[in-house]
Amino acid sequence: MKSDVPSSAKLPTKWGQFDIHVHHEEKTGLDHVALMLGSMEGPDPVLLRVHSECLTGDAFSSLRCDCGPQLDAAMAAIVENGWGCLLYLRQEGRGIGLHAKIQAYHLQDRGADTLDANLMLGHPADKRDYEIAATMLSDLGISSVALLTNNPDKVKQLESHGITVARKVPLIAGVGDENLGYLQTKIRRMGHMIDSSELE
Fold first, then answer.
1. DSSP characters for 148-174?
2. 66 an active-site residue?
3. Fewest 10 Å CB contacts: which of 8, 30, 88, 163?
4. Would you place residue 153 in the very low, low, confident or very high pLDDT band (cuts 50, 70, 90)?
């Protein structure tokens, strides 16, 4: 592969045409993606979604989580806004990887909640590290964002790495019978900022 060829291109999607940029993370060997629509120069904070890879939800439309619907809703929100950025991070299963994630599903099928299943396997409740997201944003010239998230840890980590989260934008999507317990665990045990009335 020629190193002088940029790893960026136009990417037409069902929501609209984005620019795709690939960022290689030396520490992990993983390639992460930034999808950008329009100019990132403001003056308003950039509407941003930092989305962690979820093969089962994003590709297979699993109802166990809200990941796929959140990805769809974020893409649609960026297009409706007219400009914005989506970072797609290769942090499957809250950073524990696909194999361990499916093992956690097995434990959940037997009654464990999503947090305890990770702990039973010897993993943290959430292993994700958003330093790579901050690095990508800095490389893209983005320093202030309106963040599409319900996750307070994501906000805290981005801010600790120098990204200003000027506004938090709730992202509620894909609520259903199959993932109700999953979402309730996010609220009750992980502090996610989801209005319980949204789950009724």
1. E-S-HHHHHHHHHTT-EEEEEE-----
2. no
3. 8
4. confident
Q: What is the separation of C-alpha 194 from the centre of its chain, rounded to a whole number of angstroms?
A: 16
Q: What percent of the chain has pLDDT over 70?
A: 84
| CA quadruple 190, 194, 199, 200: dihedral sign | positive
Lay out the sheet containing 46-52: strands in order across. Answer: 8-12, 17-25, 30-37, 84-89, 46-52, 144-148, 164-169
- Catalytic site residue from 19, 58, 126, 129: 126
- Mean pLDDT over 126-135 rounds to 92
Instruction: Domain ranges for the chain, please list them.
Output: 8-91+128-173
**Residue 126 annotated in active site:** yes
Architecture of the domain whose range is 8-91+128-173: 3-Layer(aba) Sandwich (3.40)
Q: How far apart are CA 108 and CA 106, in angstroms?
A: 5
**Quick one: what percent of the chain has pLDDT higher than 90?**
63
pLDDT of residue 112: 87
Cα–Cα dist 59/96, whole Å: 18
Query: Over 80: is that where the pLDDT of 180 sits?
Result: no
Specify burial of residue 53 (Cβ count, 10 A radius: 0-12, 13-18, 19+). Answer: buried
Pick the catalytic residue: 49, 58, 94, 128?
128
Contact, 65 vs 53, CB < 8 A? Answer: no
Residue-level pLDDT at 126 = 85
φ, ψ dihedrals at 117, nearest 5° = -60, -45
